[in-house]
Amino acid sequence: MGVGVIINQIMVLFLLMGLGFGLAKSKLLDKPTTDKLIWLLCYVVMPCLVFNAFQIPYSAELWHNFMLVGGLSCAIHILFIVLSKLLLNTRRLKRQGIAEQMQFTAVYSNCGFMGLPLVVALVGSNGAFYGSVYIAVNGIFVWTHGLLTHSGRLERRALVKVLFNPNTLAAIIGCLFFVLSIQLPSALHDAVGHVAKMNTALAMILVGAAMAPVKIGKIWFSGAAWLSVLMRNLLFPAVVLAGLLALHISGDMLLVVLALSACPVAGMSVIVAQLTGKSTDFPVKSLTLSTIVSLVSLPMMLTLADTWSRAN
After folding, report:
1. Rounded distance, CA 171 to CA 169, Å?
2. Rounded distance, CA 90 to CA 298, Å?
3. How far is it, in rounded angstroms, from Cα 244 to Cα 44?
4. Across the chain, which distance is largest between two alpha carbons, in Å?
5. Distance between CA atoms of residues 299 and 217, nearest Å
6. CA distance linking residue 227 with residue 236, whole number of Å
7. Which residues, at least 6 apart from 151, have a Cβ–Cβ distance to it below 8 Å?
């Protein structure tokens, strides 16, 4: 895949985000409407996309790649957790009360809302297939390690949310259909496919709308937010890229795993802060700044990966 294609696909996503930002700023897309659209995206559209990704003929190679992506996803999250503990656990950050939030923003990327549309745009059905594995692993870590980092305790309800999350269920059921070579009836398959196609535009519009309330001018002067961006957008993805190349991972799998791990700060950083009664000031600043910077950092990382992959 050429550099121009990568940059073009990312620009499309940011234009959709700009549309959402403009609609929210002009009050045409208010909070109650946004909340309902987020519910539609998370509980209907994304599960359809995840399930539909598994509606392909079974092959031993695809199953091997599926398991490989699962292993890589677990390893990446564990590596990020260790690095965040080593680099973002200083006394100064603890005194400011943001050490745990910075660790969360460094570890967890916006792989669902922003990452899945990106990899689907880049590599098509393989992006959804591999991406669904990464997102399922990410969800498990968010509701276990992520919640534990913020609250100091692990609640049974959090584990239930992981197991019964529609996207996790869609991945499990889709995987069973894939392994057993079960295909949906034509009409139902087409209907699920049409809903799945809504994901990219709807997700990006909602990400843009979420940024509208933030006073963009103030975030440029937050040293803590910039440190978070350095970790999430540059340092951690660079470590992943080096590791994937060392393991001789290439092609679609390289682009998908790198793209999802290099996405900006996760929107879950704000949601988890709200759930645990913590201030959302830092997560919102970090999320907004990281998303803006990703306009440059994401094409850079993906271009490096694509150039190296084609050269070797």
Report:
1. 5
2. 28
3. 33
4. 59
5. 24
6. 12
7. 276
**What three-state secondary structure class fits 172?**
helix
Distances (CA, A) of 197 to 20, 55, 260: 18, 14, 19
- Total domain count for the chain? 1
Supply the mean pLDDT for the chain. 84
Domain that holds residue 45: 3-311
Closest alpha carbon to 196 in 13, 54, 46, 55: 46
pLDDT band for position 234 (cuts 50, 70, 90): very high
- pLDDT for 162 equals 61
What's the pTM? Answer: 0.81
> What's the confidence (pLDDT) of residue 110?
86
The mean pLDDT of 100-119, rounded to a whole number, is 86
CA distances in angstroms from 309 to 1, 98, 155, 252, 303, listed in the order given: 10, 38, 43, 10, 10
Q: Which of 109, 117, 116 is nearest to 133 (CA)?
A: 116
- Note the pLDDT tens digit of each residue in 260-290: 999 989 877 877 776 677 777 788 888 888 9
- How far apart CA 311 and CA 94 sit, in angstroms, is 45
Token pair belonging to 201: 């535009």
Confidence of residue 7 (pLDDT cuts 50, 70, 90): confident
- The pair phi, psi for residue 278, each rounded to 5°, is -95, 160
- CA-nearest of 46, 37, 112, 164 to 268 is 112
Reduced to 3 states (helix: H, G, I; strand: E, B; else coil), residue 110 is: coil
Q: Would you say 171 and 132 are in contact if contact means Cβ atoms under 8 Å apart?
A: yes
Q: Which residues of 36-62 are buried (b: 16+ CB within 10 A; e: fewer)?
A: ebbeebbeebbbbbbbbbbbbeeeeeb
- What CATH number does residue 114 fall under? 1.20.1530.20
Burial class (CB in 10 A: 0-12, 13-18, 19+), 92: exposed
